[in-house]
Amino acid sequence: MNTALALDHVGLCTRDPAPLWAAWEALGFALSPVAQQSGRRTPDAPVEPFGTVNRCAFLRHGYIELLGIADPMLFANGVDRFVARYAGAHILALAMDDAEANLARLRRGGLDIPGIAWLQRPVEPGGPIARFARLPFPDAPEGRVQLVQHLTPELVWDARWMGHRNGAEALESAILASADPAETTVRLARLSGLPAEPDSLAGFRLRLPGGARAAGPDSPRMETVIRILPQEALPRALPGVTAPALPFMAGMVIRTADKAASARALLAHLPLRDMPGGAGFPGGFMVPPEHAGGAAVVFA
Asked: Is the dihedral of CA 122, 61, 52, 291 positive or negative?
């Protein structure tokens, strides 16, 4: 298929990853082991180690990547530029199942994409190597917005790090703020190959249709959503959240197995914000960005 299928993951970036990892463990997530990334700077370049390391919260559908810089002397693959703007979410990855077909579509649409970008990392120290095919939108001001195809999904979605105390099951939506929502939406629509529609609050949204195993080896077919809002509408979608810079990947909605009951009990000591339900709102509650590494997290 030559369009995006689903939200694959949102990535948070920081210089020192240890506090970010600790914050997400405190939110009730089981994180994968620390992994150093490597890849090719260009499609025909040799594989080299990068200076970035990550841990991830893998869900039944999608995941959240928590990324930092371990060695500033090595290539940071753009993470250094991201965190110079702000610490928080800078990566939005959409699942695809055919990298070659999507590359051809994007090139037909006039995008100057040199080829498929390859990334790999061990799933744990000394463990097998997970491999990914990526198609990043070139020079996107929103951050790293990309299509991704997992070539070894069974290696990363491992039951050992999927037992989340907060009941998290699925990455359901991502919320962006932009000074020009139409411009950001055009970029994401070109990347995904999918049409946009007006958002019920303001701005626009993209609906990704889903597909069995689209965002994990056991992921169900489910619709996921990207919302692109004007700055003034952001506090209505995520109460109290303001943008440190624009464009801004402001937050995400994570669907739970129990309508956020476990997460609410676990996180009752935090300054949680209740979320309305219906009319484009997910219900549940929000953890403010300052307690989640710079991005709002809505448990629904």
From this structure: negative
Residue located via tokens 């929000």: 286
Question: What is the pTM assigned to this prediction?
Answer: 0.95
The HSE-up count of residue 13 (CA atoms within 13 Å, CB side) is 22
pLDDT (tens digit, 9 = 90+) per residue, 127-180?
899 999 999 999 999 999 999 999 999 999 999 999 999 999 999 999 999 999
Which of 139, 161, 183 is the C-terminal boundary of a domain?
161
DSSP E strands in the chain: the ranges are 6-14, 35-39, 48-58, 63-69, 88-95, 117-122, 129-136, 144-150, 168-178, 196-198, 204-208, 224-230, 248-256, 273-274, 277-278, 281-282, 285-287, 296-299
Domain boundary, last residue among 133, 161, 189: 161
